[in-house]
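Notes from the 1:1 (GR / supervisor)

We went over the backlog. Supervisor wanted to see one worked example end to end before approving the batch request, so GR pasted a single chain during the call. The sequence is below; no edits were made to it. Supervisor asked that the structure be written out right there so they could see what the output format looks like.
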Amino acid sequence: MTNLKAADLFSVAGKVALVTGGSRGIGEMIAAGFLANGVKVYISSRKADVCAATAARLTQEYGGTCIPLPGDLSALDGIDSVVSRLRETESSLDILVNNAGASWGNSIDEFPEVGWDKVMDTNVKGVFFLTQRLLPLLEAAGNAEDPARIVNIGSVDGIKTPSFDTWSYGPSKAALHAMTRQMGARLIGRNILVNAIAPGPFPTWMLSTGVGTGGDVEGTDWAALGKTMARGRIGTAEDIAGLTIFLCSRAGAFTVGDTITCDGGIVAS
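Structure output shown during the call:
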């Protein structure tokens, strides 16, 4: 009998997820959404103290289990360290959210090599090799009825011309979208579904640096920024967590290799 109840279609309860870049911003929003819906969540970020503090705060606020797994995912030794520690406690992984990202702003005349390499290493190379290392755990979790899921967090800047002089960021996200299609095609036969989300503006540290408030997330006038957007507001945790949960649930089990915008109409308009 077909089961069309929303509680079952969108359930992710009992799954295990790793959310990279989960200590703040969009990654934290996704981790919170998972925790609120019964997922055991590991979060990773470069700074161990910040990662641990966020995990403790999310556990207190949403219940469930949130475990810090700090590491630098732009380098292979950092990736291998995170994977090794995850394998000590988990024999399978239902969900991988590749959200860790970096950006760099400078004029085209002065843009440095370090700004190119840091962004590409984090946003493209790191995603590929972390995914590669985690394939055994993902394959152990997935089956034909309920495949494992990978959600890559891209950006509208990988689709349209970026608003800021972040010369390596847009190309890195366009590469991530292309890699998502290729991974989707190659891994579907291994019971792993791969998709990407291309967010627009959300109240994050990264965007606050772009709009000139220098990382002051709380002090940024997000409402004023939102009024310049097609939707009349910026994104919320409900928006990004809801779309991620869809992709990781039964409701999203026939969506493969796609990049879905979550931008309030920016690309469309």
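Supervisor's comment: The longest helix spans residues 113-141.
Batch request approved.
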